[in-house]
Design brief:
5 helices, 2 domains, binds zinc ion, 3-stranded antiparallel beta sheet, Zincin-like
């Protein structure tokens, strides 16, 4: 997503078209905004921007982290795969990313916020429990000369017809896993 799009999509504090929808098991974006408001009041003494100025969204594609925060653009994105595996962690992740709206890194100010939130009864962690479950690899491309293999989650364009082995320059073969 470009910054331009980010600007356009921010602002209403509600779910908009184009954002990843949440599966039934996970809280709706509207519910996330409500939690954001409640946590901002309980733990942040309203130092955070109002919900209208923040974008909170689900991402089905985020597999490398439980959540991400883009403080300058005021975007919080939560991983669908991670929270399907750990649905009890939605609030924990949301709180973690909310801290990042004020503290972009995990420097000294970060643990201070962790402590403050815990003292007020909130649960928040520095690290996620695990990596989000990666999407399953479905395709394999292999070199008929050296046997080098590469696995992908999505099928390469034209069944990998245009891809060649890095080592030998031979056209790779495709196999469905
Ligand atoms: Zn973090
Ligand atoms: Zn090869």
């Amino acid at each position: 997503m470009t910054q331009q799009e980010g600007k356009k999509r921010r602002g209403s504090g509600r779910f908009r078209e184009g954002q990843d929808d949440a599966p039934d098991k996970l809280p709706s974006p509207e519910e996330l905004y409500e939690r954001y408001e409640r946590f901002a009041r309980l733990y942040f003494d309203n130092q955070l921007p109002p919900r209208e100025q923040v974008t909170i969204e689900w991402s089905r594609r985020m597999t490398s982290a439980a959540g991400r925060c883009y403080p300058k653009r005021r975007i919080i994105r939560l991983s669908v795969p991670y929270h399907l595996a750990f649905p009890e962690d939605v609030d924990v992740t949301l709180l973690h990313e909310m801290i990042h709206l004020l503290v972009p890194n995990h420097g000294p100010a970060f643990p201070q916020w962790l402590q403050r939130i815990r003292e007020r009864g909130g649960e928040v962690h520095r690290y996620a429990k695990a990596r989000a479950t990666p999407a399953r690899y479905r395709w394999e491309y292999w070199c008929p000369r050296c046997g080098a293999k590469r696995r992908t989650k999505r099928r390469l364009n034209h069944g990998g017809k245009h891809y060649r082995c890095r080592r030998c320059g031979v056209r790779v073969k495709e196999r469905r896993l």
